[in-house]
Design goal:
The structure is a homodimer. By secondary structure, the first copy, chain A, is an alpha+beta fold. The first copy, chain A, has a domain of about 120 residues. Chain A has 21 helices and 11 strands. The longest helix of chain A is centred in the middle third of the chain and has 37 residues. Chains A and B meet through helix 10, helix 11, helix 12, helix 13 and helix 16 of A and helix 10, helix 11, helix 12, helix 13 and helix 17 of B.
C-alpha cells in the first residue's frame, strides 16, 4: 500500500480554496508562478513517494541509537536526508541571498506535509532546521547569518531548538541554563536540555543548537531569557567545522513512536555560544521560530492523517468480509464507509485550515498588512491543534478500519498513531495552543475572529442560493461561533481557559465547514467535493453545538470540584 | 504511583446506583449478602494492588515469547496467575456444583475490572476462562462438565476461544475449519485460527480450546458451525492430562500493546475434539460465551481508564509548572483540571453502565424475567463499546496531561493506550456492537430502549425539584434519545447502520447522565458526586445533540460518495 503524496489536493486548495494567486500577485512572491508551484508539488511528491516513504517502517523498527556518545540513525535515513537536502526542500522558503529559493511558505508547508506523510520521523529534521533558518533570518547578526544560513539552507548542517528543561516545559520561563560572557563576543553555556528532537545525527556535517539560557543578571521568568547559537563543531570563519564544542548527547528517549527521530537529553558544559538577538530578548526570537514550527507540526498531524487514511482505504478496498460471496469488500459496509468518509472529510478540513494559515503568513510577509498578521496569528494555534488532533483521530479510525489487523504492528496502522501522538504535545501542547487562542489572540477584543467570521458568513450567504444544504448549516454554525466568541471575550482569563480546548475545536469545525463549502462551490454541486462536503456538514459539523455549550461553562464547576473530589 | 483498585466505587454503585440489593434479594443470590460483597471487593482490591499491579510493566517490557513451540510468559505472570486462581477469582460466579462460588456476575464484573486495571494482559487470561466456563455450563454434556468445569474453575486449566480465521473475522460465518466424526464420540478438528488470546501459557496444567468448525455436510454461513472442546493435553477420565493433542501454536503476534498476553496463531491438524451443544448449533453456544465476554471487555476499557486516570492525577498533583513560584501544580490549571474532571466523569459513566448491565444479567439469571433479558441484551453492546471507547479516550487524555513525559515510555502513560486499544476491536469491533444495538436489539421495535428511557425520564422528573440543574438536562437528553430511537426503528437496516456508532454513543451519553444524577441524588447536592455530575452534565452531555443529528442522516450520503470519490 504505497503512500501517494497529495500534490493534487494542494493544487486544488491553491487554485480554489485559499487563493494562492493573491500571494503570487505580490512583488515578493511574483516568481512563484503557477507553473513553478505545480512543478514543485510534483517533484516533492515524487521524492516523498519514492525515496522517503520506503524509510518509514525501517525508522520504526530500527530506532536511532546512542553508541559511545554518537547517534546512529535508522537505516537509509542518511540517504533520505541527502535527497531532501539536494532537492532544495529545506531552504525553499529561505532567502535567495543565502541560497534559498524565496518561495512562499504555502509551498513549503505543502512540501513539508508530503514529506511528513512519507516518513514523519525523518521529516522532523528539516522542519527543525527551517525554524532555525527563520529565527536567524529575523534576529541574527550579519556575521552569524553569513556563516550559518548557507550551510543550514543547503542542508550541510542541521538545526535544533533547545527550550525544555526538566522543570521547564510549558512554562519556558522557569528554565535555568546559564550563559556567561566570555568577554570575546562569545558566551559559555551550561545546563541540561531535554526533548531535543534530532539532537544529533550521523549524516550532517554539523548540528547547530539554538539554546535558551539566562545571563547572570537576568530577571526571573521569560523576560530574562536570551538565545544562543551553540554549534556541535565550532566552525572557522570559512564555515569549516573544527573543534568539538563542550556539549553532548546524554541519552535518547525510549518513545511511544517517532523511533527514527532521536530525542535527546543534551548537556552543555560551558559550551561556546553566540548570542542571537538582544540580551534578554530570547523569547521574541524563539517565538519567530516556534510560530511557523507550530503550523509545521499541525502539518505533521495532517500528513499522518492522510497516510493513515490512504492505508485504511486500501485495506477496506481489498478486504472481503460479510457479503463476501457477492465479492463485496468492507468498503461497502455502511459503518466502514462512514469511518472513511469522516476521515477524508476531516483531513480536508484540517489541511485547508493549515493552507489558509500558510497563505496568511505569506501575505503578512509580502505586504506587512496588519490584517494578515492578525489572520495568521489567529489561525496558527488552530492549525496546530486541530491538525494534530485530526492526525490522532484519523489514525485511531484507521486502526479501527483494520479490525484485528490494526492491533498487529506488521500492518503499519498502529505506527501512524504512535508516531503522530506527540504532535499534540510538542511545540506547545494543544491545551497551550487553545489558551493562546482565547487569550493572546483575543487581546484585540475578538476583532480578527470577527473578521474571519464575517468572511465566512458573507460567503455562506452568497452560496445559499446554489448550495442551500451546505451553506445554511455553515452560516448557522458561524453564528454560533460568533455568539460564543462574544461571550468569551467578556470573560476573565481563567473562565476562558476552562473552555479553551472546546472553543478551538468549535472554531476549527466552523472553518472546516467553510472550506468544504468553498471546495464544493468551486467543483460544482455534482462533484466529489460537494459529496464530501455533505458528509462533513451533516455528520461532523453538528458537533459544534455541544462544543459551544461546553465553552460557556466557565471555570467555576472545575474548581467547585476540589482536589479531594478528584482524588476520591 | 501505585494503582488503587476502585472497591469503594463499586460499593457505592451497588448501594446507590444499580441497586445490588434487588439481586441479592433473589433466592439465587441470597448468599451474596452485603457483608460478603464488601469482603470480596476488599480482598480482590488488595490482591490487585499488591500482586497484579507490580506485574503490569514487566508484561509490557518482556512480552510472552514462543520458544521451540513453547510459550514463555512474562516475568512474574505465573505467580500472578496462581494468586488469581487461589483467590477463587476465576470461578466466583460459576456453579458451586463444580467448585464455583455461585456469586452474582455483578461481583465478578467488579473484580474483573479491578484485576484489569492492575494488569490487563494477565487479567485477559481468566476472562477467557470465565467465558468458557459459562459456555460449558449452558451447553456441554454432563460428562464434559464433570471433567472440565472443576479444573477451569479452580484455574488448574485455562480456557480459550477460537473463532477467527484469516478470512473470517467479523464475518464468523465464513470460517472453514473442519470437524470430521471419528466415530467414537470425538471429532478430528483441522484448520488455522488466528488472534487466539492466551493460546498457550507455561503456568497452567492444561489449555482448553473451544473451537468453531464445520461438519462435512454443514450448510454455509453461521448455521453450519459447530463448537468443539479441543484440549491441549487430552485428559483421562480422572482429569489427568495425558497425551498431547494434534495442535500447536504457530506464532505469536507482535502487537501494539497487551504484550504480556500471548496472541497466537493456532494450527489444528486432526486434533481430537468433543462437540459442545448440538451439531450446527455452535453459534448459540458461542454467543453465550461472547455476550458476557463483551461486558467483560467493556470492563477492560473501564479498568484501563481508571488506571490511566489515577496515573494522570498523580502526575498533575505532583508536577509544578507555570505559577510554580506559588507552589502550584498543574492540577490548578483550568485546562488540566478540565481534562481530569472529564476523565473521572466518563469513567464513572462507563462503569455505571457496565455495572447496570451486570445487574440486569444477574436478574435475568435469578428470575428469568423477559424484561431483564431484554435489558441485559440492550445494555451489553453499549457497555462493551462505550467502556472501551472511554478506555481509549481517557488513556489519550492521560498522555496529554503528562505533556512530553506522556510520549516517553518509561512514564507508563503510553502503555495504557497501547494496551487498551484492542478492546475496541476484539469480541466484536465497536462498529459491530453498534450494529447489534440498532438491529438485533431493536427487533422489539424499540421496546427495551423505551422502557429504559421511561425509567430515566421518570427519575429525572422526580429529581427536578431538588436537582434541577442536573435533572433538567438529563430529561431533555433522554427525550432526544427517545425521538431518535423512534426515527431509527422506522428505518431500513442500512440506514440504521450508517448512524449506529453515533446512536450507541448517544445512548451511552444519556445513560451516563442518568447514573450521574442517581449518584448525585444519593450523595446529596453538596457532595463530590454532585459536583462531578455537574461537570458531566454541563460539559459532556451536550455532545448528545450533535450525535442525534448525525444518526438521522441515514446511509444515503455515504453511498452518494462513490468508491472513486473516496480514492480521489
Amino acid at each position: 500500500m504505497p503512500y501517494r503524496a497529495p500534490a493534487d489536493e494542494y493544487q486544488f486548495l491553491f487554485d480554489h480554496v485559499v487563493g494562492l494567486d493573491k500571494v503570487t500577485a505580490t512583488d515578493r512572491f511574483e516568481e512563484a508562478t503557477a507553473d513553478v508551484a505545480s512543478a514543485i508539488l510534483e517533484e516533492a511528491a515524487k521524492m516523498s513517494n519514492e525515496v522517503l516513504a520506503p524509510l518509514n517502517r525501517a525508522g520504526d523498527l530500527h530506532p536511532a541509537k546512542l553508541e559511545n556518545g554518537v547517534v546512529r540513525t535508522s537505516p537509509g535515513f542518511g540517504d533520505g536526508y541527502k535527497a531532501i537536502a539536494e532537492g532544495g526542500w529545506i531552504g525553499m522558503a529561505a532567502s535567495p541571498e543565502y541560497g534559498g529559493m524565496g518561495l512562499p511558505y504555502s509551498l513549503q508547508n505543502a512540501v513539508n506535509e508530503m514529506m511528513g506523510g512519507a516518513c514523519l520521523s525523518l521529516q522532523l529534521n528539516p522542519l527543525m532546521t527551517q525554524g532555525q533558518i527563520e529565527a536567524l533570518e529575523h534576529h541574527a547578526s550579519d556575521a552569524i547569518k553569513d556563516l550559518y544560513l548557507p550551510k543550514l539552507i543547503s542542508g550541510e548542517w542541521c538545526g535544533t531548538m533547545n527550550l525544555t528543561e526538566p522543570q521547564a516545559g510549558s512554562d519556558v520561563g522557569a528554565l535555568k541554563s546559564k550563559a556567561e560572557d566570555n568577554g570575546d563576543g562569545t558566551y559559555a553555556i551550561t545546563g541540561q536540555k531535554i526533548y531535543i528532537s534530532w539532537g544529533d545525527n550521523d549524516f550532517s556535517e554539523n548540528v547547530c543548537h539554538l539554546v535558551l539560557a539566562r545571563l547572570p543578571d537576568a530577571v526571573p521568568g521569560t523576560k530574562g531569557i536570551s538565545l544562543f547559537m551553540v554549534p556541535k563543531l565550532i566552525p572557522d570563519e570559512n564555515g569549516v567545522p573544527g573543534v568539538a564544542n563542550s556539549l553532548k548527547v546524554v541519552s535518547l528517549e525510549h518513545k511511544l513512536g517517532l523511533h527514527g527521530s532521536p530525542t535527546a537529553v543534551m548537556q552543555y558544559d560551558g559550551a561556546t555560544g553566540w548570542m542571537i538577538g538582544k540580551p534578554n530578548g530570547g523569547m521574541a526570537a524563539m517565538f519567530t521560530m516556534m510560530n511557523n514550527a507550530r503550523v509545521g507540526v499541525g502539518g505533521q498531524g495532517i500528513a499522518v492523517a492522510e497516510a493513515a487514511y490512504q492505508h485504511a482505504l486500501a485495506y477496506a478496498t481489498d478486504r472481503k468480509q460479510g457479503r463476501a460471496a457477492q465479492g463485496d469488500t468492507i468498503l461497502g459496509h455502511a459503518d466502514v464507509r462512514r469511518m472513511l468518509a469522516q476521515m477524508k472529510a476531516d483531513v480536508f478540513a484540517a489541511r485547508a485550515i493549515a493552507a489558509s494559515c500558510a497563505a496568511a503568513i505569506d501575505m503578512q510577509t509580502a505586504t506587512g498588512g496588519a490584517e494578515w498578521t492578525a489572520r495568521a496569528a489567529l489561525l496558527t494555534p488552530i492549525a496546530k491543534a486541530f491538525g494534530t488532533d485530526v492526525g490522532i483521530e484519523v489514525s485511531q479510525q484507521g486502526i479501527q478500519v483494520h479490525g484485528g489487523m490494526g492491533f498487529v504492528e506488521e500492518t503499519g496502522a498502529a505506527q501512524f498513531l504512535r508516531d503522530v501522538r506527540v504532535t499534540a504535545i510538542y511545540e506547545g501542547t494543544n491545551g497551550i495552543q487553545a489558551m493562546d487562542l482565547v487569550a493572546r489572540k483575543m487581546m484585540d477584543g475578538g476583532e480578527a475572529a470577527y473578521a474571519l467570521i464575517d468572511e465566512i458568513e458573507a460567503y455562506a450567504e452568497e452560496c445559499k442560493g446554489t448550495m442551500p444544504d451546505l451553506a445554511g448549516p455553515v452560516f448557522t454554525a458561524a453564528e454560533t461561533l460568533r455568539e460564543t466568541t462574544e461571550w468569551l471575550v467578556e470573560q476573565e482569563l481563567n473562565d476562558r481557559f476552562a473552555g479553551a480546548v472546546p472553543y478551538l475545536r468549535l472554531f476549527a469545525r466552523v472553518l472546516g465547514g467553510y472550506y468544504h463549502l468553498c471546495a464544493a462551490n468551486a467543483a460544482g454541486a455534482d462533484s466529489a467535493r460537494a459529496r464530501l462536503a455533505q458528509v462533513y456538514v451533516q455528520r461532523i459539523l453538528p458537533e459544534h453545538g455541544g462544543l459551544a455549550d461546553h465553552v460557556r461553562q466557565g471555570a467555576q464547576d472545575l474548581y467547585a470540584l476540589t482536589d479531594e473530589d478528584l482524588a476520591a
